[in-house]
Every structure is written in C-alpha cells, then in structure tokens.
C-alpha cells in the first residue's frame, strides 16, 4: 500500500476542478446547452488563477464535455448540436495583390527595436524564449573547441561547410523519415542567408516572385534586397496558398520563383496536407518555376509525426529547401543550411562571394551537441510546451478580445495570427501597447501591400505567467477601445 501511495501522481488543481465540474454535469446539475459559470466567476469563487480555470475548461472541452462559444462562454456539449465550432477561426485570406516595390524593412526594424525595450512584455517578438535553449551546453562545447588550435583553419568552414555538421544534419533528416544527399547541403549564417542566396540564384532585379499572403517578413526582405516585386497569393488560414489562383498567375505572368512555408507558416501556423504539397510541387514543375521552401519551424510540430517537406516530392531539383537551428536550438549561434537542388553550385558560389564562410567554431559546437546531447528529447519538451501555450493564448484572445476577433489555429510553431474588428488599426494598437510596456507585431509587416492593417501576431513561446496574462488582457482592452 505504501508503495502504491508513493507512486501515485498528485492531482493538479486544474484536473481536480475539471473533475468536479464533470461530476456535476453527469449528475444533471447542468444539462446539455446550459452555460457553465464563466472563467472569471469560477476563478473568483474557487480562488484559482484564470490560467488554472482555462486549463480545466480546455481539458473538459478536449473530453467532449463542454464546448466554447466565442464571446459567450462555455456550454455543456450537445452531441446532436449543429453549431459551427469554428466560428472564431480565421476566414480565407485577402485577394491577390502585386507590389510595384517591396519596402517593409523600416517598419520591421522599428518594431524589432521596440521588442528589445527594457521590461517590455515580448508578445510581438519573432524569436522563441531563449530560456528554453540549452545555451550553457552549446557554449561549453564552443569554449572547448576554441582551445583547439586546429579549428582556427578556414578550410573546414569554407562552403559547403563543416563535414561533421553536414553529417549530423543529414542524419537528422533520416531520423525524421527523409533521405537527403549530404553533398547537397550548404551551411549558411542562419536561414535568412540561405533564403537570400537561393533567391539570388534563381532570380534577378525586376523579377516577380509569388508569395503567400500574409507571409513572413523575412521573405519580403529578401525580395526587397534583390530589387524584385512580390505578387501576393491568397492563403487560407488552414489550407495554405490558393493553388487555383497560383495556377492562373503562372499561366498569365512570368514568375521567377515561389516562396512558401508549407509547415507552421509564420504568421498563420498552418500545416498543409501532403496531398497539397505534392500538388504545389507538381504545379510549379509544370511551369519550371523554382520554389524556395522555408522550413525553419518544421521541428516544432504539435502532432505525432514530423511533417513532410516539399523537398520530398521534388523530382526535378526545383525545390530550394532552407532551414536553421535558430528557432529550435540556439539563436546566438546563427547556423542554417540550404538544400538547393539543381541550383546547388550557384548557391555555393554565391555563399563564397557574399560571406566567404560560416563560423567554424559555431558549426563544430552545434555538431557536438547534435551528436551527444539528446536533441530529440529537447524538442519533445518544447513541442509539448508550445502546444499547451498555444491553446492558452488562443483561449485568452477568444475570451477577452472584442467581439468579431478571429484567430488562427496553429499546428506548430509559437505564433498566433489574430484578426481584429475592421475599425482597429493595428499600428495604433501597437503604439498603445508599447506605451503600456507590451510589444505586439502589427499585421502591416506581413504584406508588401499594407493588406493586414487590422491584424496582429502574438508570440506564445514565453513561459506563461501572471505578467503575460495581464499583458494579453491589457491588449484586449486597448483593442476594444480602438474598435469603438
């Protein structure tokens, strides 16, 4: 008996609350269709934090006991109900737009500087919480390597990169069910350099590039840097780029390249189906258009299996696959890579001409960590954390933001895309939030045509705390005031 008592897992507060509520429902105190007490009421009456109550309600919702109705509360589930459970989710994206030129860098730079403001709550940060990274271990490897004279030679750092790191990257793909040729890998200074090099390899100034809308601003930066134009393709919050529209564009215009994030796209967070990945590659192959695949979030999935890449469907060398460790392992050591397909030689040459090498010390430190320190264990931990915090952030936004607010449903990553009522100007909201010591990412940064003026992106990677909770509620109040 004593042994059984010692091994029994303590019941957490939110689990006990969920059980108590479920018992009252089973006993008929609440009937199907009845509204159960609000999060705030339950928090006050049970003297529990709002976060604890939300977790309990999410647990009940996952068990099918209750359902959430936006701006109304939680209701006892009716199994035969025909209500729309996705009413709070985003609709399809805006219509297609073509930019005469791309210039979002100044807005992004200003916003990123504000994120570094002392004491600011980083809801607008594009970076994951650095406290989640095994920085001490990697730094110890780097320090140990720095004491070895042989690492100071340039040869191993020249393109394509350090052979040991390349081997570790190839092994990682194999572990995730994909077989790549290690001879195709080119090490870069983060995924940003990989994307820039790949775009430079396939296009020239004045060319037009097809992008998702909304799209991650690093893609727009690359286009801007090259003096190209962006053509924005409508992108569904769950299904990805509209391939019908893309096909029409390819048929009627000269497109130099397509740039996409098929897995856990920033800012929408979707993962497109394997069938659609195949269809996208087939469509672009039909028109002989290269596609730059940004895969920086691929390891941060919430499901049971690693997502497939566009690269796995490429038979003609048209997919230029780009990734990095900056979002999963360390942002301080900027190590990325490209698998450029038929453009490999050109990308390798451009890497040499642009930056010569990537730090050999940093490459070796990352390689040692991958080889010795349980990268997969680290990833499983942060995946679970992000999935939990995605639910918390989404629930808080749907609970407290003004009526008419809609959110994405991330399948991975650590950002939430929020559509606010049309009256809300996200730049005005950004300024008001900053005055209150909170950063958010205004939607204008995710389009070359200023298409998302009533959208914001929120970061949920940071440890959930009363400070984060208060910040979300403050932004909600500010948004409500802007919506009047």
Automatic annotation (TrEMBL):
InterPro entries: Aminotransferase_I/II_large, HTH_trans_reg/aminotransferase, PyrdxlP-dep_Trfase, PyrdxlP-dep_Trfase_major, PyrdxlP-dep_Trfase_small, Tscrpt_reg_HTH_GntR, WH-like_DNA-bd_sf, WH_DNA-bd_sf
Superkingdom per UniProt: Bacteria
Ranges in coiled-coil conformation: none
Domain HTH gntR-type: start-end pairs: 11-79
Pfam families, alphabetized: Aminotran_1_2, GntR
Keyword Membrane appears in the UniProt entry: no
GO molecular function terms listed in the Swiss-Prot or TrEMBL record: DNA binding; DNA-binding transcription factor activity; pyridoxal phosphate binding; transaminase activity
Keyword Flavoprotein among UniProt keywords: no
Keywords from the UniProt entry: Aminotransferase, DNA-binding, Pyridoxal phosphate, Transcription, Transcription regulation, Transferase
The family this protein is said to belong to: In the C-terminal section; belongs to the class-I pyridoxal-phosphate-dependent aminotransferase family.
Protein name: Transcriptional regulator, GntR family
Species this chain originates from: Paraburkholderia phenazinium
